[in-house]
Description:
By secondary structure, the chain is α+β, with helices and mostly antiparallel strands. It folds into 4 domains: about 15-125, Beta Polymerase, domain 2; about 150-260, CCA tRNA nucleotidyltransferase, domain 2 (Poly(a)-polymerase, middle domain, Orthogonal Bundle), CATH 1.10.1410.30; about 270-345 and about 400-460, 2-Layer Sandwich (Alpha-Beta Plaits), CATH 3.30.70; about 350-395, no CATH class. It has helices spanning about 5-15, 20-40, 50, 75-90, 135-145, 150-165, 180-190, 190-200, 240-255, 270-280, 295-315, 360-370, 400-405, 415-425, 440-445, 450-460; strands at about 45, 60-70, 95-100, 105-110, 115-120, 205-210, 220-225, 230, 285-290, 320-330, 335-340, 350-355, 380-385, 390-395, 425-430.
Amino acid sequence: MVTRSALETSVLERIRPQADEHAHIHAIAEMLIDSVNQSGSATGMIVGSVARDTWIRGDRDLDIFMLFPPDLPREELEAEGLALARRVTESANGTCREKYAEHPYINATIDGLDVDIVPCYAVPDAVAIRSAVDRTPFHTRYIKDRVKNLIDDVLLLKQFAKNGGIYGSDQMTEGFSGYLCELLVYHYGGFIPLLSAASDWWPGVLIDLSDHRTKTFHEPLIVVDPVDPGRNVSASVSLTRMCEFIELCRGYLERPGEEFFIRPGPRSGSGESVTMLLKQRQTTLYTLTFPTPPYIEEIVVPQLRKSLDAISALLARHEFVVNRAAYRMHTDRCMLLFELLTDSLPPVTRHFGPPLWARENARQFSLKYIRGMDEGRIFSGPYIENGIYVVELSRRYANAGELLASPDLLEVRLGRHVKSEIRDSLTVKCGLDCLEEDFNSFIALFLEKASPLTQIRQRENKGLRIDR
């Protein structure tokens, strides 16, 4: 018999699905499963948290998989799967749109629920998968019975991770998936045992429930998939998210509080708060905004990350010091955000050449800049300093904004689809002009950056209360 604290009991009363909510989502799920089965071409299956009753009150997501024979050609799987998913949606009076992961599937809205209807192969085991989604039914079969006596612990962990901003294996979050949460609770035997163990985690910690790992993994957290020995379930978890989880675990065990599960209200930014923060920091913000490329998050976000790094390096090469940078993807627009310690530099910059004993290189360097003196590009030199040729040149870009708006931006290694949008429709803004209603919260959180535990302790110190 698990002994719950009064705090955890109270939280569970708030996050467990209510009876009518539970009945509604399962009734819709069974209706859709029956519709798939009646087609005669595939077998329907509920997967994900609804199948395991590990979903949080208010979640409106439902995953229905359609298992087709493994000998069906891939093109036919996609065509028949989409056609069947549309018929199933229509029979339920829902609306749908086509989405893409490894292969296309249908995202439907049915009676207030967000439903993914996904075709996959009914392979004999997870090692024989023909597409990544083929593994998902095995996850449900493996974990469903194993966590049936730990559902409350899973709910606590999911809410704990959601409130800490580390729940989700998507590219933006780089955190803990629902399946990973369930495996961790099962492995450690409960919510508190997991938190106690995770408080002592270190990068490279290995958990192999089935003791069947067949390869070496290099991610910070390694949880070998019990249905696939060659897969790390926690591959999406970045080192930052792992450490934020460790810190949250330590913080909760030291001083538990409802704030670890429920925020007093959303953190939001306003023009006034950003103005005040910038005045205090005396740094300069630059934003690059452009239309979101028409691809799924798994494709766009890595390209945003690559572009952010490339532009940060470009700024650094031109001696503009980047304190921090971040990116945000919205449905219609993306933003790359840079905080510069300085965005204006003097016209002169020093350029170093070869040492004098590299005779031919030194001669070529000297001739190049002697010939360039008539062009007005050289303030001083070439001259020798500690055996090295130096020339003081007119800086090409004395202002960071000029650099970011220049053609040079397109010469760095931007993500392919991001580059296309930047080339066609880029907006560069500076300072308070960076403020946009859709991105103000993102900018404010960027400037007030703090770990999840720090945010909780800050709210405690300010005496913020949770609305009930």
